[in-house]
Write a structure and sequence with these properties.
The protein has 411 residues and is α/β, with parallel strands linked by helices. It has two domains: 184 residues, FAD/NAD(P)-binding domain, CATH 3.50.50.60; 154 residues, 2-Layer Sandwich (D-Amino Acid Oxidase, Chain A, domain 2). Helix 2 links the parallel strand 1 and strand 2. Helix 2 runs parallel beside helix 7, helix 2 packs across helix 10 and helix 4 packs across helix 10. The longest helix has 24 residues. The chain is globular. The structure holds flavin-adenine dinucleotide.
Length: 411
């Protein structure tokens, strides 16, 4: 497939980095086959190849063709729901353990990028989650207090302190912000392509092939558009496409379109990442190294919140609301020109937490998906658990709270 960087459906990240299309031939066998070349598949491949395992990654298009190459580029610990809601869902101890897993994932991301010398514009200036009225500020304070009680960082800023961190006058709505000090930002496709190249240097093979079925026998046979391959163990890393190969996730991992755009580069006004809730489903943005502001969100403005939609094209109903966010919050930036609009496939679960499990009736196949718009901190760490399962035959109890059988997913 030829990928044209000027095509509308490509993201800012695709357009500013040459796409990495797998070119290896499909071997007949491998110890482990990983399906899906997004962050989860590439990270799993990296860990396995580094450990000396013979591993083949199968990707139907290009590395980062799905959500990872179309996202907001945040590497921020935490879950899609705030800490108070997570505690309500899981209880204090398990909420703390899960949050800790995401902190570990965030830190691992930084460690490996640094150790392997991956040039992906990764920086760690923190993230401001703005409050737009007194109620939102009180919510931010509650989230922050609980995090601090459990030893996680964060601070709530008033309007004046928030203004000191943003180099353009705040609009009238902004009452303050929660500041997450360790939050990072990166260039999504440089990150993933750099990690994929590192995995290749450790011996991984990357093959362009769409998997059509996985047949479980003594050995597992994976049928693809490029032929068949046999493997001892299989990892399925398809997020929004999980149900195509793991049918038991059909109603619990729901593809959901996320829409996003990039403005033409401008002088630096935002050095941290930012988030807000202008609409109930939220917005997020960062200013990249070339001065482009990349902003997404406003799913609440789509019919059915774009739930069930797996489509890479943006729509006017959502995009027009995203285009109003920066002018409303920062009136001096109302002149910015949109350079590119795109969409990507998120995947949501009913309780807003990912699923990590063994595939039903398949003792040598594991999968993870349903990252609910906040997958990046999970990538480096969930992949390590999957790589461990692929080498030991057992998925760690650390992630048993994310099993598909958990009560909060009951249908
Ligand atoms: C607009 C948007 C903004 C987001 N912003 C952020 C953010 O800033 N921070 C954050 O933490 N999270 C964010 N997310 C969520 C995050 O990007 C995802 O959770 C994460 O990228 C999922 O990674 P993945 O590897 O599981 O799936 P994907 O990246 O979607 O990768 C799956 C891959 O599988 C391939 N594939 C599909 N079917 C087959 C098949 N049959 N055979 C072979 N290959 C196949 C696809 O081509 C794709 O490359 C955002 C998502 C979107 C869409």
């Amino acid at each position: 497939m030829h990928i044209d960087p000027n095509h509308d459906s490509l993201s800012y990240w695709h357009a500013t980095q040459e796409s990495m299309i797998p070119t290896d031939d499909l071997p007949a066998t491998a110890e482990v086959v990983v399906i899906g070349g997004g962050m989860l598949g590439v990270w799993t491949t990296y860990w396995l190849a580094k450990a000396g395992v013979s591993v083949v990654l199968l990707e139907k298009s290009a590395i980062g063709w799905g959500a990872t190459g179309r996202n907001g580029g945040f590497l921020t610990s935490g879950t899609a729901i705030g800490y108070p809601s997570l505690i309500e869902l899981l209880g204090r101890e398990r909420a703390r353990a899960l949050w800790e897993i995401t902190v570990h994932g965030e830190n691992l991301g930084h460690e490996v990028v640094s150790e392997e010398g991956i040039d992906c514009h990764l920086r760690r200036p923190g993230k401001l989650l703005l409050a737009l009225d007194e109620d939102q500020l009180a919510d931010r304070q509650h989230h922050c207090d609980l995090l601090n009680e459990d030893g996680f960082g964060g601070i709530v800023l008033d309007r004046a302190a928030t203004q000191e961190m943003i180099k353009t006058p705040l609009g009238a709505d902004i009452t303050g912000a929660f500041f997450h000090p360790t939050s990072g930002m990166l260039h999504s496709t440089r990150y993933l392509a750099g990690l994929a190249r590192t995995a290749v240097a450790y011996g991984a093979k990357l093959v362009r092939a769409e998997v059509t079925s996985v047949h479980h026998g003594k050995q597992t046979t994976i049928s693809t558009t490029a032929g068949a391959i046999e493997a001892e163990r299989v990892i399925i890393a398809l997020n929004a496409w999980t149900d195509t190969l793991v049918p038991e996730t059909r109603d619990v991992i729901v593809p959901t379109r996320g829409q996003i755009l990039a403005y033409e580069p401008t002088e630096t006004v935002f050095t941290t990442g930012l988030g807000a809730e202008v609409t109930p489903t939220g917005e997020y943005w960062q200013q990249t190294m070339d001065g482009s502001i990349v902003i997404g969100g406003c799913r609440a403005e789509a019919p059915g919140k774009d739930s069930g939609v797996i489509n890479m094209s943006p729509t006017d109903d959502v995009i027009s609301h995203i285009e109003r966010v920066i002018p409303r919050l920062f009136p001096k930036l109302a002149h910015l020109t949109v350079a590119r609009r795109w969409a990507g496939p998120m995947a949501f679960t009913p309780d807003y937490l990912p699923i990590v499990d063994m595939a039903q009736n398949a003792e040598s196949t594991w999968y993870a998906g349903g990252f609910c718009g906040d997958g990046m901190p999970f990538g480096p760490i969930i992949s390590r658990y999957l790589a461990e399962a692929a080498t030991t035959g057992k998925l760690s109890d650390d992630v048993s709270m994310l099993a598909v059988s958990r009560p909060s997913l009951a249908r």
